[in-house]
Amino acid sequence: MIIFTRGKINFVFLNMNVNNSNRKPDFAPKWFWDFDYNKIDWQASYKTIIARIVERGNEKEWTELIRFYGRDKVLNALKNEIAYLPDYAIEEVSKYFPISKEEMLCYTKRQSRPQHWI
Description:
The protein is mostly helical. It has helices spanning 46-56, 59-69, 71-81, 87-96, 105-112, and strands spanning 2-6, 9-13. It has one domain (2-112).
């Protein structure tokens, strides 16, 4: 069990490093409308799946994401592998997980590329 505190909120992670290489997560097909849901390779496509769920899912989906991939794999993908998330998703990640937005690849890439002023 890992307990993490951010501000006044306590996060508890239980058994979050589980390998489910031959199973699939409990995500509704609606999250993957642009894929053939039954043909998704859940292990090979983990970056796409993590980014999609972080961007569009809620706490229930995030919990399933951690249960299926493991906390370490999700955090590593967010820190080092996912190159784009919208601003609101970056803020939510930094509130939910024990990482700051400055540790996330998608945030540092965004800072190095100024956005158009409009």
